[in-house]
Give the backbone structure.
Amino acid sequence: MSGIKFPAQSTSADQILDSITEMQKGDANWRRGRLFSLIYHAESDLEEVTRAAYMSSFPLNALSDGTFPSLARMEADIVGMTADLLGQAGAPGSLTSGGSESNFLALKTARDRMRAIRPEVTEPEVIVPLSAHPSLSKAAGYLGLKVVRTRLDSGQRADIQSVEDSITPSTIVIVASAPSWPHGVVDPIVEMAQLASRRGVMMHVDACVGGFVLPFASRLGRHVPAFDLSVDGVTSISADVHKFGYSSKGASVILYKTEDIYAYQPFDFDDWTGGNYEVSTVLGSRPGGAVAAAWATMRYLGLPGYLEFTRRALAATQGFMDAVKAIDGFYIDGDPQYNLFAFGSRNLDIRAVFVGLKEAGWHPLLQGRPPSTLHLTLTPSHDRVVSEFERDLREVAGRVKRGEISGEDVQAHYN
Ligand SMILES: Cc1ncc(COP(=O)(O)O)c(C=O)c1O
């Protein structure tokens, strides 16, 4: 705790901005292409458009459609554009504050729908492969759902046999990732969805990180297995506009296969002394800026912009993977096909490599229990730093080999 007291005096705007600038000196310099998560940076012209759109609606509150119809219109457009991209034009859904909220709503909707359809299930279970994002376990915890973890196969995808073996009469929903954050591989979604339909349970695809990459990768000629609402048995899908949709934070989309399913999402309440309260998502007041920024970013880029950014992000990923493979001692984890991957080492302490890269100004994520790996998520702007990365990684590997860096006290952290 800082011990700070409530401000007894006002402070000038100049002083405040100076203080923020001062505090930000300790922050990661994300424009240099050395960050591999948190900010999905592409180009400065886009940043200006997104920022201007954000500021155009920055004071507005998306809680009230009637008061700010501009935001309601933009939200409907964002959901519609995303549904068109993800296999079912016109699919119902909502704009949310981020991937965690979209995943939360998918599980809450599954819980409430299955409670209505199968009231005999008193302790509902959700099947969550080991590579699925923690937001799903967090949501399950909030919602009183039991999480059943399933194994991964040798390619780090959800193991279909393990999923099948885990289904019980209490299972209500199966989760798959497209792709998973730790390994960048897409789970066997068609097979999982067939299993879900056969066993009468719902199936959520977490495409938070891939929803705005895979459709464009496919158009660029990459093999992309079917993963979206066009797959029979998939009942919901999440995709983040604030990741590879390239908008500012506070924008993700959750979509459902049918209106009947979506109907279990909104909250409608009038048992209080105020007026009727109806919201479709978790938050009450919501920043209008995030809505306008997402709408503007998607429209500004359009198909040509997304194709170009995806082409660059995939090329940057290939460059980084080639750099890793060119240095003795490293291997790529699994068979990542898109713009996220993890690498490990059979003869070097990867935690020491992590420390060395951090010292050189890079921000990979150390993940997994030993043997750990280093995670990189690549954006278009990483294409400028491929050779710098190879040079630094080579130098760090040499230092680790000579015992000049220790990774002993380092622990894996997602954030
Ligand atoms: C696959 C996946 N799902 C969900 C999330 C959570 O998204 P957010 O941080 O926007 O809540 C992430 C974040 O990286 C993710 O990669």
In short: The longest strand covers residues 171-177. The pocket of pyridoxal-5'-phosphate is lined by residues 98-100, 103, 133, 135, 177, 181, 206, 208-209, 240, 252 (CB under 6 Å).
